[in-house]
Amino acid sequence: MTEFELVLQNRKGDILRFDVPRGSSILGRGSGIDMRILDPSVSRQHAMISNEGGALQIRDLGSKNGTYVNGEPVMKKELASDDLITLGTQSLRLKEKSSPSVEIDEGGGVTPVSQARMFVSSPQELISQIEEANLFSIDDLLGTKEGPKADAIRQQHESIKSLYTISNILASDCDIAVKIQAALDDVVDHLSGECGYVLLIDEKTKRLVPLYSCSLVPGQATISKSLTETVIKKRVSVLTDDAMADARFSSSESVSNLRIHSALAVPIWTEDSLLGVLYVSHHHKVAWFDKRHLSYASSVGKQMGMAIKRDSHLRKNQALVKYLGNIRKVLEQKIKEHSAHLKRSLARQEQVIERLINSESVHTWGFFSSALARRIDKPLAILMPRLRFIAKYAETLEGMCEQYSDIASSEADSDVSRAALPDFHGPVGKIRETLLVCQAEVQEVQLAIKYLHAFDFRDRSTTEKVDVNEKIEALIMFLGVEFEHSSIEVETDLFEPPVELRCDELGLEHALFGIILNSLESLNQKPPSHDSRRSLKITTQKDGDNLAIMVSDNGIGIPEDARTKAFDPFFTTKEDTCGIGLGLTKARSFALDHNGRIGFEDVEGFETTVRLVLPLISVKSRSETSEHRPQEAIQ
After folding, report:
1. Full-prediction pTM beyond 0.90?
2. Which of 264, 349, 414, 424 is deepest in the core (most CB within 10 A)?
């Protein structure tokens, strides 16, 4: 014959199985039910399923939320395999039961494997196992014995069994509301009471609030306020055989109005706090409860308190974990947003730095243009009068040549003395001298134009051999007009024989120009009240396999606390608008790019000395430094 089972998957994903035996079985939430489903949406006696020789039928027992088969409400319906039965919010699938696994014992017989599970996942499964498998049979111990002692042992056994069931219910991983309701149902069922309530203290109002109930008496709530308040105020368990005749409670309106006879109320507590009251009453019986019932209820109140406290801690931990998780998400989002903002800021900063570097280059170019203008203006100022002088003497020479032609053509006057002939040597010498001066000044203009090309800011950096002394001398010559204009005395002490560096020639020019320009601006800012002498000294010397270039000045100097930041981008001690603090930064970049170093050092007699150290490749001999100078255009 085909056997069937009902399969339930609860909200946590646990799979519960209920065998469908022959005959009738009740499905519901109440205690003593054949197939117990602990869910508030399921009625205490919700539906009945009958199995008559494999023919299954379900009938609704007047449930609050109704019975559904395959989504349709029914009062009575035949069932088939794989039908979906819904009771409240719980759905069960009717399945044909597979053949049980078997194992062979030592005697060779075949016995079914126990289907009890080692780990209990829900109160329903737990209660089912407890009811089917007791630790021992009380009937095996007492047999047919009767009498007060046997009855007391049986009652004690039932109490222990109920406490064991409630303990496991409260220790399960179900929702706390389901666990407390299931435990209350078992308490009322075990004590055979008419009403049972769990009242908890509201944390805000500090008043008792009935949250769970199990009542066999229809109508309004039947809770004695006097009994529950006595428990809270005195922190004791209360038992009364007849509350209406009990001097402690007979004057209470709630007792007289509700006509309460037998009742007990015990605290729901933990070792450090009182959480509420477990209340059970019987309206029609006197002395229905005794001290054993009070002791049983007190044990349940203690277990309920521990379960509620544990659930409270668990909820707080879950809330904390959720809160920390939300904080983490918010922080991750903030970090992501700030990272994106930082990236955008860095990109904008790089653009600003590039523009500022270009601005510094423009400042350098402006200074250079000023020096270049002075340098071009000086030779032109000398060149133009000489050119006018040449024009004047050319005119005189032309007249003299005409005069000479007239005299030479007059051969008749043979008596003309030689002294009367015109003197051509003086004017010609003057013209030659003037042309030589003009040639020298034109060379000065050509040198200025050469430096104009040298300061072309397009990227044309190359690595090549560079004579450092020659570069320094050329820079001094180029800035000579500026030094003269600012009354600056320039002194050089260059290492001989000259040395060569393999480096970026344009980069070296910019680095040296930036260092010298920094000294020049420092000297120009020197207050008149100080020593009026303004000095600049450039020194080169060997330092092992390196060449050290030192530029010293007696200008306003750099404070000690500012020296560590002087090579940082945009750092400047100048209060005016001349420069934005990138000259020394460029020099440091050049030094680092060429495995060199740059810094300040103290030199006697000077306020500031910048020391640039670069690796050298060779020392040139005197013969290599002798230059072949071309002959002058006009001898």
Report:
1. no
2. 264
